[in-house]
Amino acid sequence: MGLIPEEIARKFGHLSLAQVHTALAYYHANRGEIDRDLESEAREAEAREELHRVVPPREIDRAVERKKQFETNPSRHTYQEAEHG
Asked: How far is Cα 42 from Cα 30, in angstroms, rounded to an integer?
């Protein structure tokens, strides 16, 4: 963000200056892990966005619903039903 802690506390009025310093200290102590998590989440978001460009949302909804039904009662579904459902 490029802000100093006092500016962050002012911008996010629900945070005290002490909370801002605590958050910054935590970030700097765990920077590698946090950055890896953020990169992973960004890749997942890109994959979901790409999926939505390729597959219409209603088809995704149908596939998710079929998966839920299968997980709830797998014995009711054959391979063909799960595949062609």
From this structure: 18
